[in-house]
Structures are given as C-alpha cells and as structure tokens.
Amino acid sequence: MSMAERVNKIKQTIFNEAIKHQRSPNSITLLAVSKQQSDSAMIEAFQAGIHHFGENYLQEALCKMEKLHHLPIHWHYIGAIQNNKTKLIAEHFEWVHSLCSFKHAESISKARPEALTPMNVCIQVNFDQEASKSGVNPEEVASLAKQIMTLPKLVLRGLMIIPKPLLNTEDQYQSFLRAHELLDTLNQNFNYHLDTLSMGMSNDYPAAIQAGSTIIRIGTAIFGERK
Ligand SMILES: *Cc1c(COP(=O)(O)O)cnc(C)c1O
What we know:
The structure is a single chain. This protein is an alpha/beta fold and 227 residues long. The protein is built from 9 helices and 8 strands. The chain has an 8-stranded parallel sheet with strand order 7-6-5-4-3-2-1-8. α4 links the parallel β3 and β4. α4 crosses α5. The two termini are 19 Å apart. Residues 33, 35, 56, 78, 162, 201-203, 217-221 line the site of pyridoxal-5'-phosphate (PLP).
C-alpha cells in the first residue's frame, strides 16, 4: 500500500467508528507519530492530508522542524520531558501530551514566548501503574490539574494515556473508558471544560474512538515499522 492508501484507510476507519458510536468524525484528530521516520516520509504523510505530527525526542524534532519549516505543520510533543528540555519544548511546540509534573508545567509556562498562544497540554495518566511508563497516578490528577490551571501560558486541554497493550477490543475499550470517566469527573467536580482525550495507537485506535478519544496517535499504521 502507498502512503496515501494507508492514510485513507485510517481516515475511513476513523469515520466509520465515529458514525458507529454517534460521534462526529470531525471531533477526532489524526496525529502522525513520526519518531524515527524520515523527512521524506513525513512530507508524503503531509501530502496525504495529515497536518498534525507527534515527536518523542526533542533534538530529532528540532531537526525536522528546520527541514520542514515550509509546511504548516502542527507539532505535538509526546515524549518524556526532561528538566533541561522544557525551554525548547516551550518555544517550538503547539501541544504537549506528556505532562507529568507541576515543575515541568511551570517551566514550560515561564519559557513560553509572549508572542505565542498558550501551550495546549494534557496530563499523562498511568492507570496501569506500570513502572516502565511515565504518567501520574489517577488519584493525583485532580491536584495537578488545579495547579496547572494557575499558569498563564498553559491551557490544560485534557488527558493522555498509553494503556498496557491488550488484544481484545472490548478490553481495550474498557481500558480507555477509565480516561473518559476521569475527564468527566474533573469537568463535573471542578467545572472545567477539558475537551481532549489523547488515546489510541495503531493497534487499538478503534476502541479508543469508541471510548471518546479526540486525538489518536498513529505511528506504525501510517509509516510502517520503525527502524
Ligand atoms: C510511538 C508512540 C505512538 C505510536 O505508536 P504506534 O503503535 O506505532 O502507532 C503513540 N504514542 C506515543 C506516546 C508513542 O511513543
């Protein structure tokens, strides 16, 4: 399959899943996860109609931004955040999905250039308590959210999760539903207007859409296996 065919197939699946679950297909953004992929593959994906790209590694992302600066790409940072990287993240991205600490939130807000709109952020939640993955415990999300709300150059948009891999679609759905329920609880209890659930990857995005995902992060199904 060509890039255009792969992208169209994913878009068709997004459309079908949305309709099946009484959702508007327009409420779901397809984010191409381009870590370890070439500039030329990214250009092909852009030409196939993808305008949002997610990167995990800052230096790699900065190189790509320079080479692809002629394209109106929306850049999302989805990788682990290190203390010494917050300034460059603040200066170069539109979104951060992987926020796990107030310290990082504060640094990003401080370093966000005045001329740019506030950074869109999601709190990464680790529901499965996997030590290998970052993310805050579900019980700690409300207090972190409250702190983030005080920062002038950040807009808290919602939650991001990477659940542990499950094979069965129903199990995947139940797993994603935890994030949807937590988002609803935050909105109800604190009168927030969080509108974003960043969840679903190549192997589980239909179930994520069923559970209310608004940004699906797809790598392999767009670009093929990473090197
Ligand atoms: C790599 C990665 C993805 C994409 O995973 P695929 O299985 O290749 O679609 C999505 N989200 C995050 C945070 C990633 O690191």
